[in-house]
Write a structure and sequence with these properties.
This protein has about 240 residues and is of the alpha/beta class. The chain has a single domain, classed as HUPs (Rossmann fold), CATH 3.40.50.620. The protein has 7 helices and 8 strands, in the order E-E-H-E-H-E-H-E-H-H-E-H-E-E-H. The strands form 2 sheets. A 6-stranded mixed sheet has the order 5-4-3-6-8-7. It has a two-stranded antiparallel ribbon with strand order 1-2. A hairpin with a 2-residue loop joins strand 7 and strand 8. The N and C termini lie close together (about 5 Å).
Amino acid sequence: MRTASEEGNGQKLDLESATPRDRVAWAANLFGDELIMTTSFGAQSAVMLHLVTSILPDIPVVFIDTGYLFPETYRFAAELNERLNLNLKKYRAPITAAEQEALHGRLWEQGAGGLKTYNFMNKVEPMDRAIKELGAKAWLAGLRRSQGESRASRRVVESQNKMTKIYPILDWDNEKLHRYLEVNGLPYHPLWELGYVSIGDWHSTTKLEPGMNETDTRFGGVKRECGLHEPSGDVD
């Protein structure tokens, strides 16, 4: 398990107790041009985008566009892209949402099997293509332990399909995120104020209602992960 890295002065950086900025700097130093980040332009995505690009202004920012995002998400993406001058790399499925429905129907309504096919077609395959085309070996993502059981036991650095994944804000809660947004004058996703705490496709995202947790607001509570962040073990 990789939890520490040699620093220039011979000392080790404990990534589990390091600051988010130190984690990003560690990844940049180790992987250089083979490092990318992803964003969903979700509820609090401005935090990771601002944090990472303040250190690495030209890092490729991969945005997987399923074609089923909320109108507010597309407008939010355009706002942050212009404001932060992102090196945005947008990836989509090889066929449009309309063609998918014509050929396969509404896959997300076809049980676990249909949902798996939908996620692979619209999220996993485009992400795999992005990794290959960008020559990436490491990936910064904004996962947090407080987002649900599937993320509660994550480590700051993990391995997934031979990729090294680093989660700089893994141990941050909503209060820390709010403080960062406030200090830096950054916006929440517009749907945050309407009760949406985890924002993905319009057909698989619901508001947080009394008695629900964050996991319940995605995919009808059936699952939290869409395939991009399935656990597969720590880095050795």
